[in-house]
Design a protein that fits this description.
Length: 146
Amino acid sequence: MTNGFAKRLVRSAGAAVLACLFATAADAQRTQLISVPAPAPAEMRVLFFDVQSASLSPVAKSIVLGAVDAAERAHANRIEIAAYAADDESTRDSNLAARRAAVVKEQIANYGFQGAVVVDEEGPELPLAGLTDSTFDRRATLRVGG
């Protein structure tokens, strides 16, 4: 097995499927298998707020703690936050979504997360089946890793 073959093998495997890397000794007499862990997929958590509120309920705090624990288990160095407000809430308080994101970010810091916490002002849309009222809009999503 040559280095060229190993490079073609790795290139064809793609980044998501990369499970191992072949390294050839200088004398090309022996080949050593080196394991390379694949990057962990991103994990998404969703928490909800009461109407016109930026306070975290005990359940929401446990969801934030779960996200911090997941980040630490995965050795993730980043948690992304996207916070939302329903249309009627935004009409009354245009900064509500930003305040919700700030409260979540502060709670992540309180739980001792050492990585970066990034507020994504245009977070991903996450369809949740069965929610047809504004409940869905009163949320924050936490994306761990990735």
